[in-house]
Amino acid sequence: xxxxxxxxxxxxxxxxxxxxxxxxxxxxxxxxxxxxxxxxxxxxxxxxxxxxxxxxxxxxxxxxxxxxxxxxxxxxxxxxxxxxxxxxxxxxxxxxxxxxxxxxxxxxxxxxxxxxxxxxxxxxxxxxxxxxxxxxxxxxxxxxxxxxxxxxxxxxxxxxxxxxxxxxxxxxxxxxxxxxxxxxxxxxxxxxxxxxxxxxxxxxxxxxxxxxxxxxxxxxxxxxxxxxxxxxxxxxxxxxxxxxxxxxxxxxxxxxxxxxxxxxxxxxxxxxxxxxxxxxxxxxxxxx
Length: 288
What we know:
The protein is an alpha/beta fold. It has 12 helices and 9 strands. The strands form 2 sheets. It has a 7-stranded mixed beta sheet with strand order 3-9-8-7-4-5-6, with helices on both faces. Strands 1-2 form a two-stranded parallel ribbon. Helix 11 runs antiparallel to helix 12. The termini are far apart.
C-alpha cells in the first residue's frame, strides 16, 4: 500500500506495511520509485517499515492456500473474449499512452476488418513526437490496402497532454460507449510489462492471422471454441472488465476531452473539410 505521509491510516490497516510519501512534493513519483526499487532489492525493506512489518496483508490472508479458477472471476477477460467484444462493437474508444500494437500484425488485421465493416475507432493518445510518428506510420500502413477516405471516416486520433497519463500508463478501451445500453470497457492486461508474453495469446494471434489471410474471420471464433480445454487453461494474463459506473464516468470524460480536441482541430480547417471533420468525429453532434 502507498499513502500520503500527512494522512492518518484507517484503524483497520494500520498494521499493514505501507509506503508513506509526501504527495505534495513535486518529486513524489521519483521518491516512490526509489522506495519500490529499494523494497524489491532488500527483503528487509526499510528500517522504519520493518517495525510494522507483518507476514501477510488483508488480501493474502483470506486467499492463503485457496484455489481460484478463472471461471469464478467473470471480470477477467481472456484474449478471445476481448476480440469477440471488439468485433461486435460498432465503436471503439481507446485511451493509450503508447501505441505498442503497431508492432503486431493482429492490430492491422483487426483495424482493417473494422474499417471494411464500417466500425469506427477513436484513439486518444499522448501528445509526444514518438507517438505521433507511430500514428502516421499506422495510417501509411493501412493505405496500402484501404482508401484514404475510408481511413479518414472510420479511424481518428487525437493527441492529449502528457499530464493525463502521468499515473495511467495502461491502455483503457471502451466499447459502444456512445450507446448507454451497450457500453462496456476493459483495462488492458495491467499485470503485463510487455505485450505478447502469454503463450496462449500467441496461439490466438496465430489462428486469427491465419483466418484473416483466408478472408474467413467469422470462422475464427468457432475455431477458438473448438480448442481443447487444456489449451485454454494455459492463458496466464487477462484484461479487466470495467464496472458499468466506471465505464459511464470514463465515457463522459472521454467525450469532453475528445470534443474539445476535435473543435481545436476544426478551427484549423475551413469549408467542407471543417464540416466533414465535425460531422464525422464530434461525438453527439456537429460541434457547431
